[in-house]
Amino acid sequence: MKKRVLAALLCTSLTAGALAGCGSFGGKETAAGTKAPETAGTEGSAGTETAADKEPVELTLWMTSRNEDDWSLSMEKQFLEEHPWITINKVVKEGDPGNEFYQGVASGTAPDLVKCSFTMMDSYISSGILEPLNTYVDSWDEWSNFTKEYVDMFTRNGSVYAVPIAVNPMLFAYNKALFAEAGLQEPPKTWDEALEMAKKINNPDNQVSGYATLAAEWTEWFFQYYVWQAGGDLTKENEDGTAELTFTDPAVIEAAKYYQSLKNAGVLQSDLTLKFNDLTKNFALGKIGMMPFASDWVTDAVSNGMDPDDLGLCLPPAGPSGEQSTAIAGECYVINAKTDQAKKDAAWEYISFYTSHAYLASYYENLATKGATSPVIIPRDDMTVTDFYEFPDEYKEVLESAKMVGRLEFYGKSSFGPYIDRAVQKILTDPNADPETEFAAAQKLCEDEALAAFNEANKK
After folding, report:
1. H or E, element range at 237
2. Which residues span the domain enclosing 265?
3. Per the record, which residues fall in region Disordered (predicted)?
């Protein structure tokens, strides 16, 4: 019965960023007709200073237009009513604004705070562009409720540099309807099983690919999981913060050869120029049998028309090492270390509002009302997404398992990723490409162009 309710609710969903709904918290009525939390933020570093005593501050934010909807605007209205000295200057940045933050700081155009992916944090902390948050979090009565393991990810030498928002493990998705049509009852547990199952699912006449992975952009993002599953890594972090490149590690070559076996078997997406959004949409439309898939993409898949009963989630198949390693990804809030103090204080008011228990509870209640919640991990010990929504047991189990095998993405990914990207693209598009030759060439080029600068910036 719960599963049928899940399907009925999810099939009416909009995207997670385009929801309006009603929370059950007492408080002022919002523009969307919902009840928002009485106080989602804190007065932070202001002490006993009243709002009337504060000097006006304009807070610059980088936003994506898809976040603009009735519910988010009503939350913004509440924040501004509670912080009348703050005004917000919103600059629309499509894609992932956090990835452009470093360049923005260098050019003097960066926002005062930004949502940043876990992937970028190592390089951002090392570069000195993030403000330490200790003076804020030490006096915030909610900080002790944040999960220590995730807080520790962004703590260096006692300084805290981020407040985690959500944790999204990278999993492996399979279309249960396509599996059933092919006579398959269980998801693959190994690379070899995945390849054989993909052959059974593959149906070019119906535009169905048995398997998919990124080939046109960000290929290192998915490729790293296969390297880990083969027992290696793409880089090594030294104790002094410098990096060593390991593009020619035997595990890298094993992963590359597996990619080639998928391509040679004809089970990968026929159009290798398809980008990330194309792949996830095609999966939702039943055109892909299986692919790497983050837990927070469930909402998008359903909003693109997928029956939630058909969306299976499992740990990635194990490679030659026997490991099912994957990444723990997610988002966190950071403050620009180069902005002035008044803006830093205002940025903290914003962060503490939008990561408070009251705000998050209202947010997830609204999503659950619309049936659009993804099985993410809330990085707080005093709440879990299952408080607001009933997921299939399969989702609960895989989220729990992901905690045991999840890891942060490879060291220096933002600096070294483009070089891996080219090598992966070459082995997928050129049938005569030799993995050892291509990755050796990629490592040499990366050493010549990027390694010295990275090590200089990150050496402790």
Report:
1. strand 235-237
2. 170-327+410-458
3. 30-52
